[in-house]
Amino acid sequence: MRESQMKKIIAAAVATAFVAPAFAADVNITGDQEFAYTDANGATSTAIDGDFNVKASTETANGIAVSADINISDEGGDDGGNSLTLSSDFGKLDLGDTSSAADSVDDRTDYALVTGVATTAGDAAIGWTLPSLVPSLSIYVSHGTDSDEDGEAHTGVALEYGAGPVEVAYAENNNDDGSKITYVGGTASFGGAAVSVERMDDDATDTEEAAMGVSYGMGDMTIYIANEETQVANATTADVTAFGLQYGLGGGVTAFIESSSDSKDASADTTAAGVTFAF
Fold it and tell me: What is the DSSP letter of 104?
């Protein structure tokens, strides 16, 4: 066999070794792009924000479903949420940048795309959704390390239970320094309407967040209003009310207009309008 032919065979074998894994997995690409025009107490600005997600999935010989999620922002950087997930009879194990226990059940009143209210719990490095032990009860356990992005070293557990139109949740993130985050929340849905309440206490910063929101969907249109009060050391530092309207235009395109105001800080009043495209 000629040397040139041998080199071609070796090159083809090497190329096949690298290409084969791509054919062994199912790969899907999704993402979104959002444009918003914002007026923050008289100061106007525009922003374009987008990201895409690459998800590859496969199954091992012993039946473990494995998937990899890679999230990239339009600036070319890591957009967070990158993880490796393993699912089987043991439940679902998320490894990487995933939700802490409190973060897995919070943000029930976070309806807005640009302005609005949201509870604040950090991320974790490992998340485990246990297999169903009791009907309608979900149990989630998380662990964070000292080097986690947007999180801290902790062990957490979250319980979420649904009964008909009502869903309730409780979570604790017990930090390694002895402090903890406690969350309790619930949502009741009736037809196109949903009412949510939630509270999060962070004793490391002596911060309490309490929120309530109502949303109503009518065909392609959804309207909402939410309020969140934040207290630090028993003193109210923010009292934000947000409301808005989102209208689905079809094909993954949604137009929106929303506004928020803070009774403790008039300079924080913000109105935004724009369009988002999810694909």
Answer: H
